[in-house]
# Entry
Amino acid sequence: MAGSTTKAVYDIFQSMEHGPASTSSTGTAQAWLDHHSRSLGLFIDGKFVRPADRQSRSLADSKGGVVCSTICAEERDISQCASSAVNGFRSWSTLTCYQRAKVLLRLGSVLGLHGQCVSELCELCEASCSPSSLVRLLQYYSSWAQLRDTLMSNWTPVGVVAVVTSDDCSLYSLMLKVLPALAMGNSVIVVPGHSSVPPALLLAQLFTGAGLPVGALNVLTGSDVMLGAKVAQNPSVSYVTYSGNKQDGVMLCKASAGMGVPVSVSPCIGFTCPFIIFESADIDSAVDEVIETAFKKKKEVHWVLCVQESVSDSVVAHLRLRLAGMKCVALRSDADRLLVDAAVQEAQQQGATLVQSCAAPPSGAQYPPTVLCGAAPSSPCVVSPCPGPLLPLMTFRSNTEAVAMGNHSPHGHAASIWTEDLTLALETAKSLSVGSVWVNSNSVRDPCLPVSGHKDSGTCTDGGQQGLYQFLRPSPSSSPLLRSSPVSMDYSKFGTEASPAVIPDPSDHTSTPPSYLQFVGGKACKSVSGSSVAVQSPGGDGVLAFCPDGGRKDVRNAVEAAMKVQQGWMKKSPSARAQSLYSLTKGLEAKRQDLVTSVITQTGVSSDNADKEVELSIARLSIWAAYCDKVQGGSLPMPQSGSAISFPEALGVVGVVLPDKNPLLSMVTLLGAAIATGNAVIMVPSQKYPLPALAFIQVLQSSDLPAGLVNVITGSRDQLTVALATHSVIKAIWYWGSAEGCQYLQYTCTSPLKTLQLFCQKDEDRKDRSTDWPESHPSLLEEMWRNAVQWKSVWIPTA
# Structure
């Protein structure tokens, strides 16, 4: 027909445009908001609470209109909420697994009835989450609620869990924390980001109405993420977990340092992720997906397009075709437009060329979808991208170069790989330091997929069975940290105290205390400073020996040595690592008498107790050797066609500050857990009892472990703690020490984020909460193993 604007099928396939979007209605959500007078209160003790004289905060939609106002909670509200959560925990945790599972399944049915209201509220508030994904979460975690005591026996809920999210975090990410915490029997205090407040309050109302005990789920709202820190300060809270952007997560860690509550961070917004297209890929599908991901969907992460050189021209041609006719994308503000202009200009100066859908308007808060072809790896648009529709494109020649590009970012959130070669896909997936890998697909999310934050992308695991353990603790153990108020500290001066001077004693010429060496890079050596510290006898009435006074340079040398061998050690087969540990066990047994003497001399215990500690150390190493090739990942039951694989990976270089109790057994236990899983380790022996660890160096020297895999550095605990905390390569720190040391690590280990296991040792008036090392309870050892690994999930579609 003349003048018709209808496109032929051929034209549609050439442009790959979507059809016209259906108009959406928000009538149900608007009615719910009107019912609450568009002024939403807090949700405490199973009902909405609107305290008088509270500040409020307005929530605007994408067009600038006011959706509703929310209340900013104060200290009195936090106390009331914590009391409610404690009562809710008593009611919820005492139910049987079957009863908790029944309630969660009922929640899924209720959500199905009110899914339209939830969906419309999410659309109004831009807190992206579909009701079907929430139903899937409920179905999945209701099953784990049923099976907790069967498949995770000897684990108990931690208590009251605070779930905190940033303003730009999605409702799905929030519920991915809330539902597993509830499924394991905890009560939850939700501190949602501003955009997800209305749907979070609606869900709390629906859950309580469906049979969740009063107080098991509470919602506090505020002006910023600092409300989460105030909640963490309440002594009733046992654990704090965060999702959202990294900046708010760092603020939460620093603000809650020293409160004696563990804090885990799962940043899921603002990271840079590689989108890798190999020459063996289906170019049409890959380009269509990258356009959809980079320019049409709400961007939670920034993508960098990496294309194999042999098909780069074809990919660019397809990009030009797909971009043609696309409209400009709205930016948040004029300030963002200035950032985009500056990034584009700098990329062009570095040699990049532009592929745009249309010409950029001269001004205004909008910009056309833009591909920066030939962007340099060091360009700001690649390293620290600004908000806006920019997609850097870089080329590579080989698989090795593609992996190097993918690992160039300090973030380790996710990656998308496009190739028809399955072997190439799996090889690349295993080599990338990211938590999620999607093959020939993108952004596949399901609660059965366990994902850990690699590198600077988080300190805990979410999803799958592995993600449940953050909300559980081994039954025989108590909380490792002591609830307390933060100490007033000058963090810049922590660990700067000089070691006590070693003064020669001319009165006794007959006996000179022996001098020991530390162990760095596979060699026994002095400290870089050449200084020594005196080791006091058990009674404190004389000098027992001298050991090196290690410092920052010794830690630096140890990290360099550990980095050289850790990747090779991790890539060894688990059975090969097991054989090396069995060999280390035999070496320990051969030096048994020397180690018994060392334990007696250092700690003053009886011969029988010392012999028992060495015997337990030999047995513990054998257990870790057996662990090496027994506990691995596997395939996952996804609800869609395809194959999902999860597997544990080593953290990298781990710093361990050892406890005073059982100096040999504790060292061997932690050493075995670290290296059995593929890590390299830098160990700081007890400042009070270092000699058994130094005597163990003889065992390490005669072992077949790679030089540099295990390093032992003696000296001031605080000084060496600072050196470990400030080294960017060290991924995790396991610390036994003072409350001040725990607070320092929580405050400092945020850039990059480090996984922390903190244990406050006994002081004069406090109960010792440290580990009972002779105890060989299976769940305690399993917890150590889980603390030594991070999880990766790989999704491969088949249809």
Confidence is low (pLDDT under 50) at residues 763-769. The radius of gyration is 28 Å. Residues 272-443 form a domain with the Aldehyde Dehydrogenase; Chain A, domain 2 fold (CATH 3.40.309.10). The first strand starts at residue 39 and ends at 40.
